[in-house]
Amino acid sequence: MEHMTVKDIVQATDGRLLCGDENTPLLHISIDSRVMKGQDLFVPLIGEKADAHRFIDGAFAAGAAAVLTSEHDNMDDIHPWIRVENTKKALQAIGSFYRKRMKQPLVGITGSVGKTTTREMVAAALSGRFRVYKTPGNANSQVGVPITLSEMTAQDEIGVLELGMSMPGEMTVIARIADVDMAVITNVGVTHIEQLGSRENIYREKLSIQDGLKKGGILFLNGDDDLLKNAVAKPGCETVYYGTGQNSSYRAEEIHLERGYPVFTANCSGVRIPVHLKIMGSHNVLNAMAALAAADKNGVPLGAAVKKLEEFTGFQNRQQVYEYGGITVIDDTYNASPASMEAGLEVLASMSESRRHIAVLADMKELGDDASRFHWEVGERLKDYPVHVLFTLGELAGEIANGAKASGMKVGAEPSRYFHFEAEDLEGLFQALSGELRPGDCVFLKGSNSMKLGRVAARLLSLLQEKTEN
User: Fold this and answer.
1) Does one domain contain both 202 and 119?
2) pLDDT score at 316
3) pTM of the full predicted structure?
């Protein structure tokens, strides 16, 4: 935070200063009593399992400069204590207060799949002209967004924020805090359908990002999505479609994969420019077009935007490609949904130079009552992306194997082989997989983060690297 004092926090939260100096400067916000950056305001949140008010003393010991509280009415301390009714709502009020002081434009990113990658690609494209601030990690929640906003400085010329949601009404809260100038919706899938009930409900929730879209702002919509292609921005705002069809003014043409990496021509309102991405999968073409649309609308020269996009190589556990001793490993274990899993299988199928394709697939979470059906359907579609050996981890992923078997998956005349492991048996999976691999193989690993498949990927990469070096 810049130019923020305890007095400003009191004003932002409509709070009451119990003790301490109102002119105390504050630079950061912390919700972890163990981690302070210097001149921090500690916000003790009340969760389902713990009330962080009991960590206030530890926060001061770690270097906090001031604290919010909803549980104290009188204090006598050299440190500033600010009484508020609700610490979470107070944190959000601080985010809104700080945002109103900022002059920089913000781009908000939401969607069922691809938010983080699109955020990174939009930020990359915008960096062709601007100094860009972007959401760190996955701080995209009702708690994360206010803290993210508080870290922007006057040196940042534009911001790219990831806005996440999982419950009804959550997007409106986050969007109003962010108060964005432009909003991107990547797609409407079935992630969080367990909480929201249907794709139509998810669609309505995603569109509520406009509750925080400024008048005269731009709404970027995926023109290939069956729901979004018919959506329009609220009155007073512009709608821009991106995709691969004629309905999109920013569209990708002549798309193909070269060893898993997308190559295409970007047609940006009639201006055509070649693009060679360094992240795998044709689904990233849409993310790239969203990035180019946002960059173009912000005045970034397309050549500079494309150059920056082509420098982006992704990040850990998201379709990262490694090769040791003739074995290619695609680590995509960060998270999973039916759409992203199928996109990853397409990448595996495109690895034409590999002798065998091996898929290691784990449960996809938060898919509600139809979770088994979604997994079965992924298995059925494996006939279009055939693999020689399929490993599945978890009860739901077993339905992927069942769907694949029912579809008669094979490679040429050779029947596919199947191995299934219970969710807890990471060791058994690792031993079987490492014993199966041989030079010429390409192995693809994907599942929801909670399945801990990333641990298997990390051990496998370490083993292969060690064998190569020895």
Assistant:
1) yes
2) 67
3) 0.80
251 beta partners? 243, 267
Question: Rounded to an integer, what distance in angstroms lies between the CA atom of residue 114 and that of residue 188?
Answer: 11
- Residues 164 and 66 grouped into a single domain: no
Could you give the dihedral angle defined by the CA atoms of residues 367, 370, 371 and 377, in that order, rounded to the nearest 10 degrees? -120
Q: Is residue 94 part of a domain?
A: no
Q: How far are the Cα atoms of 35, 51, 68, 275 from residue 80, in angstroms, in the given order?
A: 18, 20, 9, 54
Rounded to whole angstroms, the Cα distance separating 4 from 320 reads 40
Mean pLDDT of the chain: 93
pLDDT band at 259; cut points 50, 70, 90: confident
The tokens for 299 are: 């005045």
Q: How many independent structural domains does the chain possess?
A: 3
Question: Of 115, 137, 121, which is closest to residue 308 (Cα–Cα)?
Answer: 121
Inter-residue contact 30 to 36 (CB < 8 Å): yes
- CATH classification of the domain holding 421: 3.90.190.20
Q: Would you give the end-to-end CA distance of the chain in angstroms?
A: 50
Distance CA 468, CA 470 (A): 5
330 is written with which tokens?
Answer: 């695609």
